[in-house]
Specification:
By secondary structure, the chain is α+β, with helices and mostly antiparallel strands. The protein has three domains: about 90 residues, Rossmann fold (3-Layer(aba) Sandwich); about 120 residues, 2-Layer Sandwich (D-amino Acid Aminotransferase, Chain A, domain 1), CATH 3.30.470; about 60 residues, ATP-grasp fold, A domain (Dna Ligase, domain 1), CATH 3.30.1490. The protein contains ten helices and 16 strands. Strands 14-13-12-15-16 form a five-stranded antiparallel β-sheet, sandwiched between helices. Strand 15 and strand 16 form a beta hairpin. Helix 1 packs across helix 9. The longest helix has 15 residues. The chain starts with a strand and ends in a 6-residue tail after the last helix.
């Protein structure tokens, strides 16, 4: 197959690992800077171009950064319109990037979630806190990534100050209950094709409540319970993602889905588990591409 990896940089670990795994399995593989693609939108022959070249792939693997979600999903959608299989559909990527929308979808599916509240008016600060059981609470910008824009407010006064500051900035944010029993840990489960292929437990750095590896956290391989596996797969499936990093918190009432990432990094989980996740992703692309007709690759992927 001809596989395109949509990524801003060839040198990124996840991008280079996917390219290496695809070529090892005999595929012609190319990394394309998503932001430099442009589209010819036409009823008879929709195409994607790079410079003077028309891009022709059998399948694409999107690695769309949060900063170019709108344009990146447009590029993926254009490939889908041309009958190219995408490891993650454009609409699924868009769902996962909208934290509020993704939580609403997951709640509809009955997925375990931290208690969460969302409002617009400054007059509703007390109600926001009451809806999640009061402080301590986590206040999270909807556009936050890698732990940035996430604040732990341990008192009502601190929570009101943070909420007020975000509202003054006209920023959209969520207020979530703080799961104290998680102890600063969370679990990243890598779901590929409806199956958990690897999982790691992430520990927050000393003095930090966020367990992101980008924030100085550490990680180790973990064996998931059957309930945790079900939660991770249910979350990925609910958002329509073929490849997803699902972040779980362990709570007294069972696993809670914190977030679902449509472009999960591979470095931390591969080094922690010694599992070749890139190989699993390429295998999923192969199976899925071979199982679908061109009509099935475009059907329902460009709606909404």
């Amino acid at each position: 197959m001809k596989i395109g990896i949509l990524s801003r940089k060839k040198s990124l670990y996840s991008t280079s690992r996917l390219k290496e795994a695809a070529e090892r399995r005999g595929h012609e593989t190319r990394v394309v800077d998503t932001a430099r693609c442009y589209m010819r939108i036409a009823s008879e022959e929709p195409t994607v171009h790079f410079g003077d070249e028309t891009l022709a792939f059998d399948a694409v693997i999107p690695r769309i950064g949060a900063s170019i979600t709108f344009y990146g999903t447009a590029v993926v959608r254009q490939f889908e319109m041309a009958g190219v299989f995408s490891a993650n559909e454009s609409q699924a990527i868009a769902r996962s990037r909208d934290k509020l929308r993704s939580l609403q979808i997951l709640s509809r599916e009955g997925t375990g979630l931290p208690e969460t509240s969302f409002a617009r008016s400054p007059k509703d600060a007390d109600s926001l806190l009451a809806a999640v059981g009061g402080p301590p609470v986590v206040v999270k910008l909807l556009e936050a990534t890698q732990g940035l824009g996430v604040v732990l407010a341990e008192t009502r006064k601190a929570a009101s100050s943070v909420i007020g500051a975000f509202q003054e900035l006209d920023a959209n944010f969520l207020v979530q209950e703080f799961i104290a029993e998680a102890g600063g840990d969370d679990i990243r489960a890598l779901v590929v094709g409806g199956e958990v292929v690897a999982a790691m437990r992430r520990h927050a750095a000393p003095g930090e409540f966020r367990s992101n590896l980008h924030r100085g956290g550490s990680a180790e391989a973990v064996e998931l319970t059957e309930e945790q596996r079900r939660s991770a797969v249910q979350a990925a499936n609910a958002l329509g993602l073929g490849v997803a990093g699902v972040d779980l918190l362990e709570s007294d009432r069972g696993p809670l889905v914190l977030e679902v990432n449509s472009s999960p990094g591979l470095k931390g989980i591969e080094s922690s588990t010694d599992i070749d996740v890139a190989e699993r992703i390429i295998g999923y692309v192969e199976r899925s591409h071979d199982a679908l007709s061109p009509e099935e690759r475009t059907r329902d992927r460009i709606q909404g």
